[in-house]
Amino acid sequence: MKKLNHLVFWPPFIFLTLTLFLSIQSPEQFIGWVSGAKNWILVNFGFLFSWATFAFLLILIAVYFSPLGKIRIGGKDAKPLLTRWRWFAITLTTTIATGILFWGTAEPMYHMHSPPSGLGLQANSPEAAVFAMSTMFMHWTITPYGIYTLAGLAFALAYYNMRQPFSLGSLMYPVIGRSAHGWIGKLVDMICLYSLVAGMAASMGTGIITISGGIHRMTGLEETGFLLGMICLVIVLCFVASAASGLMKGIRVLSDWNIKAFLGLAAFTLIFGPTLSMLELGGKGLVDYVVNFLPRSVNVGTNIETEWQHSWTIFYWANWLAWAPITALFLGRLSLGYTVRDFIHYNLLLPSLFGGVWMVIFSGASLEIDGMNNGFLNEILQKSGPQNVVFELFNQLPLSTLVSGVFLLIAFLSYVTAADSNTSAMSSMSSEGITPENPESPLGIKVIWGLIIGGLSWTMISNSGIEGVKQISVLGGFPALFLIILVGVGLVRMILNPSKLNR
Predict the structure, then answer these.
(1) What is the pLDDT of residues 458-479, one digit of tens each?
(2) What is the number of other CB atoms lying within 10 angstroms of the CB of residue 260?
(3) Cα–Cα distance between 46 and 37 in angstroms, integer?
(4) What's the whole-model pTM score?
(5) Residue 480 burial by CB count (10 A; 0-12/13-18/19+): exposed, middle or buried?
(6) In this structure, are residues 12 and 197 in contact, taking their beta carbons and an 8 Å threshold?
(7) Is 180 helix (H, G, I), strand (E, B) or coil?
(8) What is the rounded distance in angstroms from the CA atom of residue 68 to the CA atom of residue 502?
(9) Percent helix, strand and coil across the chain, each rounded to 5?
(10) Which domains, ranges and CATH numbers included, belong to the chain?
């Protein structure tokens, strides 16, 4: 019988409530403390983030070409839960969340107008534009998806092939055995639940602000606390309803709509944007990315100052790592019936390819249009924030109002889809009695987590404290770093002894 797992649920719930209370009572002091903790982590462990994420890719390459790559997840006779298209659509849309939508056009402005001083690049120059494009490939393709793929694959094999419970402790089972399901596993579950809720609230807050900004630009409605609250309520109702319907219903429909909308928007921007210039810049950025991939991955011999690496690249790795453990539970659950190599195709290679194409189109368009108009997109960034850059970009294209409306719909669907997947995983972690045959947690637990995420997000943005939640999500990447390193060790052990998985 499935019921609430009190030991896993209550500690992060209570700690999140205290966090919310402290951030409201003393927001400046709270954010200062969290920011100081984040800076300490990046200064003292930044090198480990860099080397570990690079090592994850090496492990995945070894897995792909080893006999382990032929193993079928769930055993020789396992049948897939999803078609390949459904699998790709759900995997892509749940891992994108709102990231590439908001940062695909805004982030390259930072890199082009404020490149690392150690590179000797002139701001707003063609060389700086190439560096900006190369950096977008670095931050949004192979390396971050390698984090998710490593963790998701390890969980899939532990859950389906080793028949371990639906918990983060199962990620550690190949290394520490049954001890993974004792107090160590429970502690990992609690920490990662806290980290993900904070990260989801931060992402949701950013999405709410962006949607409200788009509504203001299109209708003139003021961005009041009431409007923010209504947007938040609709998002929460939608992703909780979708999560309540189960994996084979709500999220399958949402992801299909979402990916088609992604592809349509990308095709429109490619056709009506500065196409040839975007493609040329994308090609130059890709060459720079490949040539400098190794040194920039481990930050050796690049002449890029450490402060820049901490502010951007390692900051991103910490964010991806904060989401990785619980995202791994969801991604691993989808993969039943496919081989390990299939898993790498659909969780690493294809999403990375999509991310690269998206950046060629949207980062390329923003860089080219900004360059042709004396840096006016960068001015929008500095005056109005990153959420307004994409709408100003659409103003330079035909049918700008319609396209902006479609973008708002995509932003809404993107967060709902990602929140659906993570709410399902969080709820299953908070429940007892979850098995491959009975994978859904009780509805009440899903509703509770949805309300916590929505309440935390709305309170933070209403009190101008969302930056504190973002910093907390980065702190979550610190313990996750050590967990995923342990997961990597476990995969290496599977490479050396794959036979026990093939049953």
Answers:
(1) 776 766 545 555 566 667 788 8
(2) 12
(3) 13
(4) 0.90
(5) buried
(6) yes
(7) helix
(8) 9
(9) 80, 0, 15
(10) 3-501 (1.20.1740)
